[in-house]
Structures
1.
Amino acid sequence: MDDLIGIKQIAKLANVSIGTVDRVLHNRAGVSKATREKIRAIIKETGYKKNTVASRLNLAGRKKLKIAVLIPEVSSNWTYWELPKKGIQKAVEELSEMGILVSYYYFTDPLSFAKMGDTIMDIKYDALVTVPFFMAECNNLLSKAKAEKIPVVFLDTEIQLDFPAYFIRQNSHKAGMVAARLLHGLVGTEGRYFVINIVTDRGLHANNQQRENGFREFFATNFKDRAISIMTINQPIDRPFEINPEIENWFRDPGRKGIFVTNARSYLIPAILKTNNVSNVSVVGFDLHHDNLECLRKQEIDFLINQKPEFQGYTAIKGMFKFLTEQDPSDLNMDVPVEIIVKENCGAD
Amino acid sequence: MDDLIGIKQIAKLANVSIGTVDRVLHNRAGVSKATREKIRAIIKETGYKKNTVASRLNLAGRKKLKIAVLIPEVSSNWTYWELPKKGIQKAVEELSEMGILVSYYYFTDPLSFAKMGDTIMDIKYDALVTVPFFMAECNNLLSKAKAEKIPVVFLDTEIQLDFPAYFIRQNSHKAGMVAARLLHGLVGTEGRYFVINIVTDRGLHANNQQRENGFREFFATNFKDRAISIMTINQPIDRPFEINPEIENWFRDPGRKGIFVTNARSYLIPAILKTNNVSNVSVVGFDLHHDNLECLRKQEIDFLINQKPEFQGYTAIKGMFKFLTEQDPSDLNMDVPVEIIVKENCGAD
DNA sequence: CTGAAAGCGCTTACAG
DNA sequence: CTGAAAGCGCTTACAG
């Protein structure tokens, strides 16, 4: 009961050597159909399960599992991707004795993404962890990986691709609903909301749109008949806010209640409100960016929603390892929890 | 660089056999002082680190790590402890190939806790996971464990004990502050709050008191000068609410705003409010108890705070394993995040 | 098509 | 006090 059955017992039961059992287990050639089937039957009967620890101990030296990670380049104004990387590295450390090797590649735009993708496909990796920012390039990469039977898991964002794939990311629609719940809780059942997509030259990200949709759905579902208006603007990060007459109007509207920033740039809002003498406006944003946390502490932002980026990276590596060693993909599709952060649980004491 | 140094290399460098290296690594007797020191020096120089995977593969068959778990008995009206147990079992499954054996013991009161504690100490376990509900009995058990050099980690609650110990639990004071932040966000800066400790015959739990203290501290710190009053009652679960004149008064008070229930019994509140025709009162409670989630879905409870009980159990086993195999206690002291749950992120879609 | 041997890094008797 | 051998469960050349 306690001691699980091993390759040795299987061999004895089948009257063969352990080498032959191993050949069957790995579907390698060179076994007669009869013995193969006999062994298969015994494996099924006994419920044999490979001992991953023993297997990896053996292979750790000679055949490491090679995983390529292709993520955005960290720059001074976009440090977010340090966090998934941190989680990836934690997983790598935990698995270091199991024979794992992770190589990082970075991109800045569709072109460099495609180029790096090709480089990765040239080297024979066992798996790929990346990000689905560019639909055409992703489909291209995914189809190549499919052909080579290389599993791919996408982080951060979910988009519709030509082939089914694994995604570890927050459900952005749901996150938008949570944001609406929080903002609505703060301001009550009537008022004018303001959704701000602060966009860079990368344009409007799929996550931003999904979050806005969720935000709007919350009100459409729960408060259809209330006097609630939601205005959206796509504000380029490098242009002054006040230049936009819509924004000016919203600032002067006494019914203005709350602002939902669909990405991590919410820390820009408090200063703008102050400059324009706008008070009593609640703000909800995303990500535990340093400046966002600072605003949270000063109570200039009310809530932040965390996408748990370290956790995403960590789970991707752990889940991929489990898939590669046990053919179990169950950890490769994950809805990361929508974590709500306020001043008192933001981690800094 | 890539291939880490192993016991074999150490042996070669020291001109001894691997057996002798092993003896030094495990501080076993039978090595001359000179060789011992030579080997120690080489270990230090090379930064040798034991390969846990190889070590456990070897020992999994003959010397399993035995961990005793002593937790409250699950009953029909207190199912909470199923959850830490679930996390424990998940960890046990993940570590099954590493040679681990967990035995469960249950208590219902101080007497059975002490008795089970003695039973556990009689059998030689490698570690103990339990719960610090009864101070005297815990100190007793902890001192015995100390004498036997058996590490102990406590879940769920932190209390002051005679010896330092490991705790994996939510910071209840902080959780109370979070609850206050949420309730305050909903009701604004003025009003009368109501803290309800719904107590059973087990009496007021340390967590409840700590949560109430945190709740009060939030208002004392942030809104000292505002017209905020906080009333606390300890309501026995088996007695009707309305019988208490204080509660009657609070119900009739137009300034009443929010109720903070310091444990998982918040699901009792909505029905009481309804019976007494009390509306527009916000409710914050604890734990993802089935009935609480039901109230959350019906928007009768606004926020729940989750203590992540599965995570606590999981972390206890994983952390204890790491401690036993690598002498690394870093995962045995943990502030579990104060997780905020609303209807939209409660997990059920 | 199949088996026997060597080995992954560590641990444990056993022999001297 | 020290070493050589056997073994944990699996994997890989190599021999036949």
2.
Amino acid sequence: MSDRSAEKKQHIIKCAREVFAQKGFLAVTMKDIVEACEISRGGLYLYYDNTASLFLDVLKYDEEDAEKDSEDISGDMTSAELLAVFFKEQKKLILRKKNRLWRAIYEYCFDQKDAPGENFIQKQFDGGVRIIETLIAGGVADGDFVCEDPAAKARGMMYVLEGMRLLSTASAISPKEVDREILSMMQEIVVD
Amino acid sequence: MSDRSAEKKQHIIKCAREVFAQKGFLAVTMKDIVEACEISRGGLYLYYDNTASLFLDVLKYDEEDAEKDSEDISGDMTSAELLAVFFKEQKKLILRKKNRLWRAIYEYCFDQKDAPGENFIQKQFDGGVRIIETLIAGGVADGDFVCEDPAAKARGMMYVLEGMRLLSTASAISPKEVDREILSMMQEIVVD
Amino acid sequence: MSDRSAEKKQHIIKCAREVFAQKGFLAVTMKDIVEACEISRGGLYLYYDNTASLFLDVLKYDEEDAEKDSEDISGDMTSAELLAVFFKEQKKLILRKKNRLWRAIYEYCFDQKDAPGENFIQKQFDGGVRIIETLIAGGVADGDFVCEDPAAKARGMMYVLEGMRLLSTASAISPKEVDREILSMMQEIVVD
Amino acid sequence: MSDRSAEKKQHIIKCAREVFAQKGFLAVTMKDIVEACEISRGGLYLYYDNTASLFLDVLKYDEEDAEKDSEDISGDMTSAELLAVFFKEQKKLILRKKNRLWRAIYEYCFDQKDAPGENFIQKQFDGGVRIIETLIAGGVADGDFVCEDPAAKARGMMYVLEGMRLLSTASAISPKEVDREILSMMQEIVVD
DNA sequence: CATGAATGAGAGTTCATTCAT
DNA sequence: GATGAATGAACTCTCATTCAT
């Protein structure tokens, strides 16, 4: 792919992201994308055959962004501190109103459920579990946390986060509510 | 509405339910319903103007069914036993593969988010919280449970259940996994 | 036809008149009529098979009404006075905004142009010509009017009236404008 | 708009004109147009959203045509001669059987009566009045005509023409009849 | 007679997708 | 590569008309 091509793709992805954030996945048509990108109808088809393949690229581009954001996390924090940071980040994602893709992601996954081990939500969930598990284990080693089964605990926590994310997407949830749940989860493992 | 009319409505609701269970909410067209019910194109419009109003009736009919099912719960069980029954029921709902409406419900709520305090998912969530809270409080009174803040606990549990429901809808979840989470939630409140 | 039947027909005609006055002829559906009459769908078909046959009856009923109205004209007026009354009546019909059927009549006649010598507009026109012609002739005999060819004059006057009626139906016309034309027509024949 | 596009539009307008001439305005469907143009269903919507906007273009195209036709009028004729030519032209328009748009124009204007000062019939009428008025005034100056109030006379004449046009559209009118009226109008102003 | 549920034809409209330029 | 006109399939919705009750 030439540079020009890659640039154009970036442009499409960026505009399409807005559309998906606004309308979810299922209701978005190729026409919507074309209009948002201000490119030609045929032009879009040179890069993407359907909304699904485009949406996958939107997700990829979003992940890259997220990684860049989280790079500044590193440093010399303790596991306990890192877990707090992780929760704070999740809280932000859960409460974000504008430009969030959750609705689209849900709709996409419902639609592509049969896909081969490539389920985005599952991956996201597993990734979260792994991070939390590692941090809890680290905290236990540091003497900050007490937890018999970090893996099980991590799963439970991720379910809570997913539940809140869903409620936020389908209805609404207050920052206070999220804080309460996070606090409650922390208290369950932290050494008094 | 005459008996005849009500019967027909029941028929439409029943057939439509299948369609929604299979295709979700957004992808379902009036044509799909017409074909599933084997009625005429115009005939459906006699009863429902759009998929949304029909879907609302499907949900209502589903709730009535659920109430009938849960009537046989009553009896002389303790709160602790009742909570176990509640979780078992939830497990069944979470794991059900066929004929479940979750996907459709999610898609419907995403689409109608602005609706006036009539959010189905929120109502479902609040209802669950109320039940759990009551049962925990009862269990505490019976000396079966220990819990400082039953309301907060109930919310946390419902988030876990919602999280599992979502994972099950968008990806998959094993009975063992559900059992583990339920067991873990019970252990947190049960007196050793 | 039984009395009851005739009564019902009257009811349908009366309601249908409103509909035609408001929507013209072509845009009116059998459904519109049914709703306006608050009778059953099938019920209407017992009396009228289509909007055209119903409209014909509306016109007939309207004519009967008009005749009743004009009965009180009689008396001991001169032809010149009667012509003035006729013009005044026409003026009222031309300027009437509510409940007038002109639009519907035009649309109906356009649609049924091929009909066999039953053209409503033509009949109306011819009727008007006959009246004016008679009155002019009478006026000439009385020495009030001067006119070489009353028939030709009458036709010319009816064209003016038709032209004003059309303008009023398709656009708008002011009472002053109508007065001016009527005055001008009178002056052409009146003895100075 | 590209040349190609303009050409296609011309083609649509031309075919649509036939349809409107034949069926009037209200009874014409987008489907009728599609079939007459032999283009695709969606293709028509690329150019026109509804029959009304298309009809407006048909009228515009017709006016342009009319202007071309009347260009050869110019020259060194007297006002009196020009008025005769104008009446002859009107006679032709009134008597034309095929491809005339009057019915469609009437139906369109009835339907769009509320439109903002853009009434086609009114404009047509006012235009005619202006022409006649100018020509009468010119004729008076030349000593060919006698007329105290050319403006009033012009209005009266246009009403006669409109009346004849309506009769011709809704019923029928003979060339002799039109000639008689025109002659009669001329005699009223011509110097003996 | 009267009802109104039911049917099915047909109009309107939108889009995914193709293809000549 | 890029464009955007063109196509045709699919869906929504409305009504005239029928018919069992």
